[in-house]
Request: fold
Amino acid sequence: MAKEPVRVLVTGAAGQIGYALVPMIARGIMLGADQPVILHMLDIPPAAEALNGVKMELIDAAFPLLKGVVATTDAIEGCTGVNVAVMVGGFPRKEGMERKDVMSKNVSIYKSQAAALEKHAAPNCKVLVVANPANTNALILKEFAPSIPEKNISCLTRLDHNRALGQISERLSVPVSDVKNVIIWGNHSSSQYPDVNHAKVQTSAGEKPVRELVKNDEYLDGEFISTVQQRGAAIIKARKLSSALSAASSACDHIRDWVLGTPEGTFVSMGVYSDGSYNVPSGLIYSFPVTCRNGEWSIVQGLPIDEVSRKKMDLTAEELKEEKDLAYSCLS
Amino acid sequence: MIIYLCNLLNIEKEPIRILVTGAAGNIGYAIAPMIARGLMLGPDQPMILHLLDIEPASKSLEALKMELQDSAFPLLQGVIATTNVAEACKDVNIAILIGGFARKEGMERKDVMSKNVAIYKAQASALERYASEDCKVLVVANPANTNALIFKEFAPSIPEENITCLTRLDHNRAQARLAEKLGVPVSSVKKVIIWGNHSSTQYPDTNHATVSTKTGDRPVKELVADQNWLRNEFISEVQERGAAIISARKQSSALSAASAACDHIHDWFLGTPKGTWVSMGVCSDGSYGIPTGLVYSFPVICEKGSWKIVQGLSVDEFSREKMDDSARELAEEKALAYSSLSV
Reply:
């Protein structure tokens, strides 16, 4: 007996992350190989033709799970009835632009997106903000969609999490699926804190701490952290474009684990509304280690935090506080 | 219970090596994550990706490798990103040949053909020398059929049944267009056929196509009110779809081409679903009066890693003419290709 289709919205769908993401969704990578989907693709009017081109290609791919495609520049049509919303659309920083200018443009985008989603999305719609500044865009969305439960609003730090797994797997020459429980704390920016203090590797002799196997604290506290923090810039340098494939793939992982649950003994990183855990101020969207079950995430509690980690976690919280202030100043 | 036991015993398959040429381009960027997620060979088949492109693209190629690492794909056990053909071809079990010379404004057919002939001649030698013995080849780059033919000519020790070209994209497009017209799920449309060349002379044939309904499989011909549409607009829409995509996107199809390439390999290796067939460009054995010595798209069924042309389908006069037209174009392309070789 086939399942009822789930409606998934992708904003900024005519862009390169959208182009990478939509076939992944249509193939069941986001919600499972037996879950039919209806894709809602939203973008701005200048991108209407390109958006239609993407719709045409999705049709041409004859995906068995894809039960419909709504390609639109109308936010209401885009948001109507959606169960999952992946917000890729936003204003990218251009050369010569000040942070304040980028922030100001994105604040107004996310304020109006919030209103549209709140009014037209299905109840219990799960929201993932990808567009940068991801955490602050998600915060603005939350503020202007008060009837969307705050636990349903998240931002993407799974990309950083997966990058951290990739770096450890390279360093140790082990399969990436054998590495788990890295943590990305904080902001999806260069102030993020990639923490391996609780990370583990599956070996023939059982699970071992990453620190024990790497045997190089200088690397783990130095180069490893900056490599993960600055990986986005490294990709831009090599591609002349920002990450699309890996961002899209991580967005699928984020939603899949949220909806279908994390494996036993494993936690992942999600940017979520802080409840004050780990002395992170509430009122921020902050990346925490979480487990997921029955469609809900919960912050992993009780992890010991050393001094070095404390400092880094506080630093990124401070940056988020500044971004929040900047965003609010744009609103007034 | 069985899944539980398998996990307990940790039964893991050996990784399969998959080569993608032209990997730094748009189709490569779309196909790499599809392969890495198991869409080509199934969710339990690990792989090692070999990514090849030319020197000017080496930075983009490196960036692709970085993004694949950043995605932490469980099935992806290694990535070799290289501009060295021998390294790229070494021990590969599957080769997806996307790299080729794209036609630029002002270029004559002969010029494009000549450049691609040189490329596929070299690819053929390299794969023949370094690939795994059982390597299965899918040519995507246009002119797909003729590139595949040249490849076959210059890799004589690769069994010709292992050399194919992509017409699954056209097949999927035809299936989707019918589904749209009839308002039915795309997976309920079966047995379309793409005959011939992956070009505007391809023949999308609905004479044997069916739709699964509550009362069983019914012929498309019966369900489509307008027979004229099936013989005219439908055919030209499918034939010209590539151009329509370029018009809308300002770039050629990447997502759908990549997806169709995954379908082609998936069905080849894992078998076609029961009750239908697919279209593949394969070395003609003379079936349906199509000359041998051409790579021509036929309806095929796949089982145990081999394809077989579906025999015994009736071919009416209308179809005969179109099938022969496409064969004629392929013969002309072949002659042009060979003339490029002798220069």
